[in-house]
Amino acid sequence: MSPIQLKQQNINSIASQLPCPTYERDLVKSGIVHIGVGGFHRSHQAYYIHQLLRDAQNSEWGICGIGLREGDRKIATVLKQQDYLYTLITQHPEGNETCEVIGSIVDYIFAFETPDLAIDRMAHADTKIVSLTITEGGYNFNPNTGAFDFDNPDIQHDLQYPNNPITVFGYLAAALDKRRNNGLAAFTILSCDNIQHNGAVTRSMFLSFVEKKNPSLYNWIKNEVRFPNSMVDRITPVTTQPSIDFLNTKHQLKDAWPIVCEPYIQWVIEDDFSNGRPPLEKLGVQFVPDVTPYEKMKIRLLNAGHSVLGIPGAIHGHDTINACMEDKIFATFMRHFMDNEVTPQLGEIEGIDLTDYKNSLEKRFANPNIKDGVRRICSESSAKLPKFLIPTILENLATEGSIRYGTFILAAWCYYSDKRMDINHNEIDIIDERKEELHRNAKQSEQNRLSFLRIPDIFGNLLDNKRFIKEYSKMIEAIYKEPNIHKLMKLINQDNHLVD
Ligand code: CS2
Questions:
Q1: 64-102 residues labelled b (16+ CB within 10 A) or e (exposed)
Q2: Which residue CA neighbors atom 6 of ligand 1 most closely?
């Protein structure tokens, strides 16, 4: 049998192979507009909404995706060809998988080419929520000062041409201005990125932008728009050809961009919406008054834990996170980092047993069927580490806590940015907007041990701390003398600091 193209008109035939949407997708309204339809959005939020449409037959809360960047052209094309349908492949640790066709995305606008359509959709009466996954680096703030970066040329552009925006801030402002002029209620802005206080950060950045642009709109937004904080979680590796082939051969399905994910899924949100919300509590989403402790726990343990494995993993030549976890030295290092450097900074979290949480993270990281690439984990480390790892080091410096695991990762990151080569002399393919700048600074380390850290908007004021400098310098010296990552991690694990 030749494979069937994933498309709405073929749903009945596909349904004999795989679970498919049973709801009338034509009748579903886009109550949610989502900016940044990457793999994570499709394994997480779109999956929750799919279940809601399926189980609760609630047709108000479908999703219209929006792509702002040129790089979104591929997803725009693929989704359109497939009537916005895609397959979600959940990989269980035991080796089996479950597949389901997801139908909650009912439209997609490639705003890069048609900005007006995107603004109109956000300004439409049906739209109640605009949600975002624009990556940790997308919020346009200087982590050192916390201030909005007005020097960004795209922001300058959006201030000058409000009706033809480029950035997410320009789009949100244009759409909200339209709603206000049309007498419509504001939508909620829901950030789903891995940033602590993601809603509050979005609010403060967006208000700084709008204040410059339009003071009366600023007051309206300040009073009317809610920005709930949220914690999101589901490990979603980059889709690779074997997953596409698997659907083809095992299920006779032609899907150009399926999504692979782990079984674990979690979403914790503050119940603070401007204009209604979907009844996601029916699906296990937790609504809490304050999400901060959950966000902090997830970002500092899971996301930082990923980088703690991924950066030395790349130098050592491990390709995936599960390969890092199979390596006892790496697994021990990560657990020590979590126990000794993160846990003391977390305190009590209602309803959470931190030991269970860390044990479950170890299992999730070790899932051999997820094959989460170290390349993905290390991508955009310049945006991730200032949010995932450096705050832990700073808090431990302030409280006299242990810093050696976190500091070693920064030293390893310097070596990685400098040499771009693993210990077997294979090139490391670094994806990072700032990789050249990192490389320039890192490569002077042999002459000046601290050179890598002289990027204040990444490393903040770490350089002002003598204890940190001492520990970091020893680590740099050790790595450059003998880049035997294994040996060094083992020494650190054994409580042998590399520091006298
Ligand atoms: C990862 C996240 O890219 C990363 O650094 O830690 O994408 C992670 O897989 C998700 O946040 C899981 O919820």
A1: bbbbbeeebeebbebbeebbbbbbbbbbebeeeeebbbb
A2: 303
In-domain check, residue 379? yes
State the distance from the centre of ligand 1 to the C-alpha of 256, rounded, in angstroms: 23
Query: What pLDDT, in 10s, does the model give residues 404-441?
Result: 999 999 999 999 999 999 999 999 999 999 999 999 99
Q: What residue's CA is closest to ligand 1, atom 4?
A: 377
Q: Are residues 469 and 446 in the same domain?
A: yes
Q: What is the mean pLDDT of residues 289-300?
A: 96
Q: Which class for 241: exposed (0-12), middle (13-18), buried (19 or more C-beta within 10 A)?
A: exposed
Per-residue pLDDT band at 498 (split at 50, 70, 90): low
According to the model, what pLDDT value does residue 500 have? 43
For the CA of 305, the nearest atom of ligand 1: 6
Helix count (H) and strand count (E) of the chain?
Answer: 23, 13
Together in a domain, 445 and 347: yes
Tell which atom from ligand 1 comes closest to the C-alpha of 307. 5
Q: From ligand 1's centre to the CA of 23, what distance in Å?
A: 31
- The CA-atom distances, in angstroms, between 228 and each of 4, 11, 201, 299, 320 are 41, 36, 10, 17, 34
Whether residue 411 lies inside any domain: the answer is yes
Asked, for residue 500, whether it belongs to a domain, the answer is no
CATH number of the domain where residue 392 is located: 1.10.1040.10
Are 192 and 315 found together in one domain? no
Pocket residue to mutate for ligand 1, from 191, 300, 303, 380, most atoms within 8 A of Cβ: 303
Atom 2 (ligand 1) nearest CA: 303
Are 162 and 203 in the same domain? yes
Q: Number of structural domains, the chain?
A: 2
- Decide which of 265, 288, 311 is a domain's last residue: 288
Phi, psi (deg, nearest 5) at residue 100: -150, 140
What whole-number distance in Å separates Cα of residue 331 and Cα of residue 316?
14
154 contacts 171 by C-beta, under 8 angstroms: no
Instruction: Judge if 201 and 281 occupy the same domain.
Output: yes
Q: 189: number of CA atoms within 13 Å, CB side? A: 26
Q: Is residue 388 in a domain?
A: yes
Looking at the fold, whether 277 and 358 belong to one and the same domain comes out as no
CATH assignment at residue 144: 3.40.50.720
Give the domain extent around 467.
Answer: 292-495
For residue 93, is pLDDT > 50? yes
284 shares its domain with 297:
no
Q: Strand pairing of 4-5 and 188-191? A: unpaired
Q: Would you call 5 helix, strand, or coil by DSSP?
A: strand
Contacts of 32 (CB under 8 A, 6+ apart): 45, 49, 61, 62, 63, 64, 127, 128, 129, 130, 131, 278
With a cut of 90, say whether residue 142 has pLDDT above it: no
Domain finish residue from 288, 316, 350: 288
Answer whether 0.85 is exceeded by the pTM.
yes
Q: Residue with the nearest Cα to atom 8 of ligand 1?
A: 235
Please tell me whether residues 365 and 453 are part of one structural domain: yes
